[in-house]
Amino acid sequence: MNSVVDEIREEGRLESSIQAAKRMLKLGKLTYEDIATCTDLPLSEIIKLAQEKDAK
Predict the structure, then answer these.
(1) Cβ neighbours around 46 below 10 Å, total
(2) pLDDT of res. 13
(3) d(Cα 23, Cα 20) in Å, to the nearest integer?
(4) Considering its fold, how many domains does the chain have in total?
(5) C-alpha distance from residue 46 to each of 5, 27, 29, 53 (Å)
(6) Is the confidence at residue 56, as pLDDT, over 90?
(7) What pLDDT is recorded for position 39?
(8) What digits encode the pLDDT tens for the residues 7-51?
(9) DSSP label at 47?
(10) Which segments of 1-56 does DSSP mark as H helices, in order?
(11) Could you tell me the residue range of the domain that residue 49 belongs to?
(12) Is 18 within 8 Å of 49 (Cβ atoms)?
C-alpha cells in the first residue's frame, strides 16, 4: 500500500516541478541549468520542455 502512495506522491511532485519549469522558461531569465537545479529535473527534461514551448 505504501508503494502506491509513494508513487502517487512522486507523480505529483514531478508534475509540480514540470509546471514550475515551464513558468521559469516562460520568464526567460534563467539558464536551463539553473532551472534544472531549482526544480530537481534533469537538464534533458528542461531542454525538452523548452523545445516544446518553442514549437508552439
Answers:
(1) 25
(2) 96
(3) 5
(4) 1
(5) 26, 14, 14, 10
(6) no
(7) 97
(8) 999 999 999 999 999 999 999 999 999 999 999 999 999 999 999
(9) H
(10) 2-27, 32-39, 43-55
(11) 2-55
(12) yes
Q: Which three cell numbers stand for residue 52?
A: 516544446
For residue 1, pLDDT over 90 is answered with: no
Residues with Cβ within 8 Å of residue 5, at least 6 apart in sequence: none
Cell of 34: 539553473
Contact 37, 48 (CB under 8 A): no
Tell me the three cell numbers of residue 47.
531542454
Torsion of CA 40, 46, 48, 50, to 10 degrees: 150
Length of the chain counted residue by residue: 56
